[in-house]
Amino acid sequence: MLEFIRDTIEYQNFGFNTITFSFFGTFFFSILQAWSLLKQNTKIKKKKSGQSLSITFFTYSCCYFFAFLVYGILNRSIGMIVNGLLGFCYIPILFNLHRFKGFFNINWIFLGLFSLMIPTVYLLKGELRNVFVLIGLFGLGIPLILQIREMYKQKSTGSVEPRFLIVFGFSSIFWFIYGLVINNWIFIVFNPFSILLLGIAFGLYVKYRKLEIEKLII
């Protein structure tokens, strides 16, 4: 274990530099992400509803974070490993979405297919692994678009937790900076796309929340 830590990017470059500062930033936002996922799960349980939430988005995110955990271990990055551990935070959300919204056959099929990302990351080597992770990141954009579509379709904030969207948006900014610092083009290319989609989702939340408040006043 100690030998693994000594081999990590963060340990080898520890000091008063941008890599260390970026690491603490991404570590901080990983903790915030875990907190926001907890809040999202609490809201689902409180409302006993999964309205306006895309099962596909949370299923894909769960599997991708576990795949990212493997990627972080293979790349000797504590920051990536900590972020990958967020996969565990998605499990109770999926459980409660199944409980209150229900899984169709297609949802189970997607869960099985998305789970294949985890062993694939381990089996691929070198640049092929990096390309796969990048494709997987952009693949995350599709479920995120489906989440936006779900909110637009329902015309309601439903059980969407705004802190989840805000925290993940700011986290994407930090991962973009982290990518610039460690010269990882995967983070540099994807995160602006992620920020845009999360911004759209948050914009819809604000719009529908305002309409819901107006209806209550009337």
Description:
- The chain contains eleven helices and no strands.
- With 218 residues, it is mainly α.
- It has one domain (24-217).
- 83% of the residues lie in helices and 0% in strands.
- Helix 10 (162-182) runs antiparallel to helix 11 (185-217).
- The longest helix has 33 residues, at 185-217.
- The chain has helices at residues 2-6, 9-12, 18-47, 55-74, 78-84, 87-100, 105-115, 117-123, 126-154, 162-182, 185-217.
Helices and strands in order:
Layout lengths: L1 H5 L2 H4 L5 H30 L7 H20 L3 H7 L2 H14 L4 H11 L1 H7 L2 H29 L7 H21 L2 H33 L1
The number of distinct helices, counting runs of at least 4 residues, comes to 11
The percentage of residues in β strands lies in under 5%
Shape: globular
How many discrete structural domains? Answer: 1
Write a concise synopsis of the structure shown.
By secondary structure, the chain is mostly helical. Helix 3 runs parallel beside helix 5 and helix 3 runs antiparallel to helix 10.
Short key terms for the protein model shown above:
218 residues
